Amino acid sequence: MSDGIATAGVRAVAPYAARRETSRGRRYPEPVSEHRSEYQRDRDRVIHSNAFRRLVYKTQVFVNHEGDLYRTRVTHSMEVAQIARSIARALRLDEDLTEAISLAHDLGHTPFGHAGQDALNECMREYGGFEHNLQSLRVVDEIEERYADFPGLNLTFEAREGILKHCSVNNARSLGELGLRFIERRQPGLEAQLANLADEIAYNNHDVDDGLRAGLIEIEELREVRLFARHHDAVRAAYPELAARRMVYEVIRRMINEVVLDVIDTSEERIARAGVASIDDVRAAEGPLIAQSAAVHADHLALKRFLGERLYRHYRVLRMTAKARRVLKELFEALFDDPRLLPEEYADNARAAEAELGKAGRARAVADYVAGMTDRFAMLEHRRLFDPGERT
Ligand code: MG
Cβ neighbours of residue 34 under 8 Å, at least 6 residues apart? Predict the structure, then answer.
């Protein structure tokens, strides 16, 4: 690893990192802070947002009420931030920006994880669809109302480009400068690439832990996965008496460590080979520079495939998924058919959006309301709308 150009205890970021001098700034210009960097402010704004607090009660894989030890969206986001930040430091990227993107990446997630997003996407099919990634951007750009001078959190361009991981070319056309890279097939900054990869590393590994804890997968079947088997067998050999729970943690810790070190080495090599000297060089590079080696990527993919087949499609997870889809679909339909049932503030939004954009506007306002719900609020709201015995 190359030495930092650190001076007086301040760690300087590399020339190819996101830097104030090359930042594309905020949508609404603001005075510079005396004691915080622009990317620190981004991260702090995310932490103070309503959408971030709601992540406490949103599902990652297991619904919030299934047990207190399972990951929720907020603990998932913190694990993503931890993994991303430690790689960012090793690569001399901007840690604050990396953290801001990591903490914000799931802000637009619906209740009940991917089941919720799929259901809402179906409901919105005729009205532009629903994609949680785009919704995360909508949350920080429009939905949060915390400032007198502008809507949203007014994050920097670099944070916003990181939050918008994927986007259809169609949607990209309506996003101006931010959408351009999806049309021109350019890369985002390294901090964005990193947060994206750290998301995968975090969930693949913590879903092993949660899946084992829930008894939905077994250690013996996990040994079909090379990455797991390798570390499991090494830990077993070194500590034959180790209790199962501790063994699992030891194995997962080693798995994450292997993957993280590989990302650092592989990315360093790619960055050096590409010879990038600025974030704009990074954006113009042929492909992502933050990456896993081919071997670790294949191992990681095998783990992901295993989880896809054995955990996410386990009948107990599928039952939860089916219920979640039903609840979200019914909530959307009831509120879309009669927006007067929305709480006043949201009904006003729906009316204003409909006046401007017709039915698509009404649908978007209802989708915003439903997407913002936590798991438990969605269940309560569903009872309030469908169960005559429930107080409205
Ligand atoms: Mg995520």
Answer: none
